[in-house]
Amino acid sequence: MSARIIDGKAFAAGLREKVAHGVARLKEQHGITPGLAVVLVGEDPASRVYVRNKERMTQEVGMRSFAHRLPATTNEERLLGLIDELDCDPAVHGILVQLPLPAHIDAAKVIAAIDPAKDVDGFHPVNAGLLMTGGRGMVPCTPLGCLMLIQSVREDLSGARALVVGRSNIVGKPMALLLMGENATVTIAHSRTRDLAGEVSRADILVAAVGRPEMIRGEWIRPGAIVIDVGINRVSAPEKGEGGTRLVGDVEFASAQMRAGAITPVPGGVGPMTIAVLLRNTLVAAHRQAGLGDPDI
Ligand code: GUN
Fold this sequence. Notes:
The chain is globular. It is built from ten helices and eleven strands. The protein is an alpha/beta fold.
């Protein structure tokens, strides 16, 4: 049997449409246009593409987009000054500083300077703490998008065995907390895990976020499991001619598809969800800053 393919691209398009409706309603009923500021330091080619896509999609849902592109030589003080301005600007409801930052800038210090209410990435220690303690903060976009995709297949995760492979602050740790919040029994695996194959084989839900091409073998997967592949790895593809490349996930897709109940493809799975959830978080932030209840999305 072949797994159901979880179409993240279509799900993300639907979510952006709901956000667009929410934005229109907020404008109409309260005269507020949500604004998202994106800060890019340096010339990293992948980051430039992400920032351009964020700008375009922000405008497509009817929000204001404020992009700040700073040279790689920008010093920490200058960046902290910009964050301070954005924190104080009432037209800006969400602030995102594109990571990674150049090595001479202390990323933790920059993230801590963002007003937690405007931290639409959910990376500020206050928001990380609120997620940890079950409070109402901003939740990191990629793991929240993964949870939405999981629940599009299986709404009730109570008692399910969930395995998160990867322990980053951006994906692995918040993902584990979100799954625990849905009453799953959560295990976190990482580079020192002794028997990864054994852990994978027990998981009803698998979230792979390690950034290593196809490291999770299809034959390890529990039959019927929900598989969410966060990895986006570019590998060489000689079949596409000299210098050809293709994108693969952290899971060996072809063999995993034969065992899983549902699986996200790469590309077109988790990837498109991140920006859609970022826009959702910006809409939520704008509501909260206006003292309104959360939008129903
Ligand atoms: N770089 C890669 N992913 C992300 C993300 O989700 N947010 C930010 N700010 N930078 C990133």
